[in-house]
């Protein structure tokens, strides 16, 4: 049997990982500045993470949501405390796409409406409704195409106001990433997020804060939307929530009421997933990783802004992007092949940095040294020799 060939693969086999480093099957060490798409939040194979999962595995790994699972409430209590959303409700699932799918579904149930407002360059997942709300027609099958989703210009308050003036009574929800990840590390302005909040309140629509990549402390606050001083009605979470273990969820405001059968999942909130998620929150709290993300991110951005050849450095905390064009168009590939550094990308020319929230300054300096060396090498032009 062949694997279904949908991923562009680097010819690297990772066999070991610790902290911010990876090793392949040949013993080569790599610096991880990408965390497997922002998934590694507390560092690879953190001892507390491994211990928490191992302990739970030795007790019970899984049973369905048809029985009491006390560790779910333990997770909800810890998550409420650290996120500052203790009056919200928690629904647990398995992936970011599933979280966003349930968020939009819940908004539609609550309002009785069909229209979803999303934005240009958005990415909300690959399942049916999540991909319909993703601004990339190339990954939408015909069955995903719907008139129920409208895309408005990102950060355009006038366009948003005009749409609500015309169609506000039809809008079930507005869904927005506080910082667009796949779209290229584009930051939603505080004014734009505040405008979404006021319009959703005025028209009784649901404000969904997609925090799958930009949440869980990556921006220096628990949710990147928190920087704007707004409260969303639903927050979706995944990626860094389990440090590599598949776990996701949505935080749901008190006015959105549950009933039996409204949402459901087989694997969501299983014992192992909750143990992994609890371990992440415990390490984040104990090691003050949100504060580290903020201070280390500021240090990294200031240094990046001084490097010749890099354009448009932007981001918050440890969600950072910059553009590499012209002579540097192969910079990401060269960093991996020549300097053994993993980074991410957003087409066509943005490099994304999404390292562990526990990354240390010395590892950041190691990255910066490798980056500067590779840029200098790439910008060397052959000197012309005058003919005799």
Question: How would you concisely characterize the structure shown here?
Answer:
It is built from eleven helices and 17 strands. The chain is α/β, with parallel strands linked by helices and 388 residues long.
Structure description:
With 388 residues, this protein is an alpha/beta fold. It has helices spanning 35-38, 47-57, 70-83, 96-111, 128-132, 157-167, 190-203, 271-286, 289-304, 331-339, 361-378; strands at 14-18, 21-24, 29-32, 89-93, 115-119, 149-152, 171-177, 179-180, 186-187, 206-210, 234-237, 248-252, 311-316, 319-323, 341-342, 344-346, 350-353. It has two domains: 47-286, Aspartate Aminotransferase, domain 2 (3-Layer(aba) Sandwich), CATH 3.40.640; 288-378, Aspartate Aminotransferase, domain 1. The strands form four sheets. A seven-stranded mixed sheet has the order 4-12-11-10-7-5-6, with helices on both faces. The radius of gyration is 22 Å and the shape is globular.
Low-confidence stretches: none
Number of domains: 2
Rg over C-alpha atoms, rounded to the nearest angstrom: 22 Å
CATH fold assignment of the largest domain: Aspartate Aminotransferase, domain 2
What letter string, H or E per element, gives the SSE order? EEEHHHEHEHEHEEEHEEEHHEEHEEEH
Structural class: alpha/beta
Terminal-residue CA separation: 64 Å
Average residue pLDDT: 96
The total of helices stands at 11
**In this structure, how is the largest beta sheet organized?**
7 strands, mixed
Q: What's the count of strands?
A: 17
Overall CATH architecture of the largest domain: 3-Layer(aba) Sandwich
> Any idea what the CATH superfamily of the largest domain is called?
Type I PLP-dependent aspartate aminotransferase-like (Major domain)
Question: Which range does the strand content fall in?
Answer: 15-25%
CATH class of the largest domain: Alpha Beta
The proportion of residues forming helix, as a percent range, comes to: 25-40%
Shape: globular
Strand order of the largest sheet: 4-12-11-10-7-5-6
